[in-house]
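As the next step, I wrote out a protein sequence along with its fold in token form, included below for the reader:
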Amino acid sequence: MLSDEPPQIRCTVEALPAGGRLARVTIDHRRRVNTLNTELIAQLASLCERLQTDDELRCVVLTGAGDRAFVGGADIREMVNLDPESARAFISHLHVACASIRTLPVPVIARIQGYCLGAGLEIAASCDLRVASDTATFGMPEVNVGIPSVIEAALLPRLIGAGKARELVYTGRSMTASEAAQCGLVDRVVRAADLDVAALEWIQAIGTAGPRAIRLQKQLVHLWDTVPLDEAIERSVQTFADAYQTDEPRRLMRAFLKRR
């Protein structure tokens, strides 16, 4: 049965066994396959801004409500009435939401079921890790409704290669979860019933690692996406040194040596 609740971004926070917190974020617009309108986009960006300030946060899981869709795209019922000025505002707000996911200081896991299309695929590409059900469907169908794929669609060539990215945005065709895994769009494909188990394996690994090391690693991963290779390597040297500003490396290394 479809929910009678208004569209919303829901967030629950839970303690992790090794310390710190996990945030579970759900995009809930299930009556319209979790399509994103202006209000939901603003809610998502605002939530991510709040999560930025949680020093105990270790990991975020992002998913869509129900089993029909992760995010079915941007809401065409709203976009059909845009003009050039309002179109710029709409897509700029969506970019802010995607960027707020990309710049969260901890890893973000996309838990994908059903449709992951257009804006949904841009949201998923903004995450660090992606696990999908074997019945999920991926695509960038914007050209079929008269608009180009933009903003975080620019992440696709580095994820799946230029050729596959061009195929998606030029043809608007959809791909299966199996094909998405083959081209590197998703990191793991499992049965729908196993989505939470698969995500939990990543959550546990991240949760038991050094909290500061994970945050420094997230900074580097974001850097790798934005600067030339030589600069990325050079700046990583300072990040390595910065890791020793606290006792986390010594403490975890001593524990490792003790176990050995």
